[in-house]
Amino acid sequence: MYKVTKRIMEGKPITPAQNSSNLSTSSESDEQVLQIWGGQPLKGHVKISGAKNSALVLMAGSLLCPDDCRLRNVPGLADVARMRQILAAVGVKLQQNGDVLDINASNLIDAQAPYELVSQLRASFFIIGPLLARLGFAKVPLPGGCAIGARPVELHVRGLQALGAEVHIDHGTVHAYVKGPNRRLKGAKIYLDYPSVGATETLMMAATLAEGETVIENAAQEPEVADLANFCRAMGANIQGAGTNTIVISGVPRLHAVDYSIIPDRIEAGTFLVAGAITHSEISLSPVIPDHLTAVIAKLKTIGATIIAESPDILRIVPGQTHSATDIETLPYPGFPTDMQAQFMALLTLSNGDSLIKETVFENRLRHVAELNRMGADIRVKGNVAIVRGVARLSGAPVVATDLRASAALVLAGLAADGVTTISSLHHLDRGYEQLEVKLQKLGANLRRVKEGTEPMIAEAPVNPVRSGLNC
C-alpha cells in the first residue's frame, strides 16, 4: 500500500513530497478474504454513501478552480484515496476530515500525472480536461482500472482536438497542449459517436474555461454528469442542459471557491435493494434520489418486490414470497445501468424461470458467471448474452471477485447461499463500496473479513432460514 494512503485513511494532509510512488508487492485487500455465512435475514436501515463516480470526477473538476474547494459526502474508498494521490502529485493540497475533503489547487506544480497511479484508476484520466483548460498543457498516461472492456479514449481525444488542442499519444501517454499567446481552448460543436460518460465529463470540464460556446451533442445523461455540471456552476461556470443529450457551455475566464455536497451513490443504493430482495428481507435505505433508480426499481417490481418511498430520500424494499424471471439489457442512462447487471444476475439465479441478460455497454463484463456457477447457479453465456435458469438454492464456495460490481454480486449470492462463501481479491470491492461488510453486519448479516487462509469457524454458521421460494 502507498505510504500516502495511510495518511489519507488517517485523515492527515498530504503534499506532493509525501506522494511516494513506491509500491508494495501486494495490498492489504489482496491478503484478505471475506467469509459469509449465508441464510441470515436482514433487517433495519442502511446509510448510503456519496457517489463514487461523482466524487472522482468532482475531485478532478476542482483543478479548474484556483481557490479553495470543499466537497462533502465524500466516500471512504480506495479509488478516492488513489485520486487524492494523483491530485497531490500535480501540486494540489488536500485535507480530509471524515467525509469532508478540502482541496486547494492554487499552485499546480506539474501537468503530468504519474503512470504508476493513473494506470490503476481509469477515472484519473479526467484530469486531462481541467489541466488543459487551466494550464494550456497536460500529460496523462492512458488509464487503467477494472478489466471489463476496452473503454478507449478516442472520444476524449477527438473532442479536445475540436476545442483547439494539439493531442498525440506517445509511449502510452497522452500529450495535449494549446497553441497561442493565451493558451486557452476555443469553444466548438462536438458530436459524440457514443454517449460516453467519461468523454462527456472531460469535455464539459475542458470547455468550462474555453473562449466562446461549446455544444456537446449525444452527451451522456447520467446523474453523475449533472452532478459535475452543478458543481462547476456552483463555482461560476455557465453550463446548460446537463442531464439531457445536449449540453451547452459558455466559457468563463475564472472559477471561484465552492462548498458542495456529492449526490448519494445510486449503485450502492441499488445493491442494497437487491440485498433485501435476494435474502427476502425488508430493509430501508437513505439518503437516495429515487429518480436515479427508476430502471432498477422497475426491474425489482417486475421480479416481485415492492418498493415504498417513505419520504423523498428514503426507500424501503418489501420482497415478494417468490422471485419471477425477467430480461435485462444494459444501456446508457436512463436505461438499465451496467453497474447493476452483476448484482441482478445474482438475484435472478434464485428466480422462477429463465432470464436473459444482455450486456451492451462493456464487452468483458460477464466474467462473474463462472463464479456464480461455482456456487450452484445455472448460467450459460454466448457472446454478450447470459441465460440464467433459476435454481432452488445456491451453495457457499470459494470464489474470486473479477471486478468491482462482480464482487458485490458474489457478496449478494453469499448472503443467500447455504453454507460459507469465501470471496478473494477484495481490492475490487474496496474500490467502490464504503465499509460494505460493516453496513451488512448492522443489518444482521453474518460475515467477516479475515486474513487469507483463515479457516471458517463452523460454530458461527447459522441455520439457513432464507429460501428462494422456488416451487421445486
Task: Put the structure in a nutshell.
Helices cover 29% and strands 23% of the residues. The protein is built from 15 helices and 23 strands.
Structure explained in plain terms:
The protein is an alpha+beta fold. Helix content is 29%, strand content 23%. The protein has a four-stranded mixed β-sheet, with helices on one face. The longest helix has 13 residues, at 266-278. Mean pLDDT is 89; it is low at 1-26, 145-151 and 468-472.
Report the span from N to C terminus: 48 Å
Mean pLDDT: 89
Helical content stands at 25-40%
Number of helices: 15
Major sheet strand order: 21-22-1-23
The H-level CATH homologous superfamily of the largest domain, spelled out, is Enolpyruvate transferase domain
Largest pleated sheet: 4 strands, mixed
* The CATH C-level class name of the largest domain: Alpha Beta
Unreliable stretches covering 5 or more consecutive residues: 1-26, 145-151, 468-472
**Protein structure class:** alpha+beta
Spatial extent as radius of gyration? 22 Å
Count of the separate structural domains: 2
Instruction: Classify the fold: give the CATH topology of the largest domain.
Output: UDP-n-acetylglucosamine1-carboxyvinyl-transferase, Chain
How many beta-strand segments? Answer: 23
Q: Which CATH architecture of the largest domain?
A: Alpha-beta prism
**Strand percent estimate:** 15-25%
Silhouette: elongated
Task: Compile the SSE list and pairings.
Layout: H1 3-9, E1 32-37, E2 44-47, H2 52-61, E3 68-72, H3 78-89, E4 93-97, E5 100-104, H4 115-118, H5 128-135, E6 137-141, H6 154-162, E7 165-170, E8 173-178, E9 189-191, H7 197-208, E10 213-217, H8 223-234, E11 238-240, E12 246-250, E13 258-261, H9 266-278, E14 283-286, H10 294-303, E15 306-311, E16 314-318, E17 328-329, H11 341-348, E18 354-358, H12 368-374, E19 378-382, E20 385-389, E21 398-400, H13 404-416, E22 420-424, H14 427-432, H15 436-442, E23 446-451
Parallel strand pairs: 2-14, 3-13, 9-10, 17-18, 21-22
Antiparallel strand pairs: 1-22, 1-23, 3-5, 4-5, 6-8, 7-8, 10-12, 11-12, 14-16, 15-16, 18-20, 19-20
Helix pairs in contact: 1-3, 2-3, 2-8, 5-7, 6-7, 7-8, 9-11, 9-13, 11-13
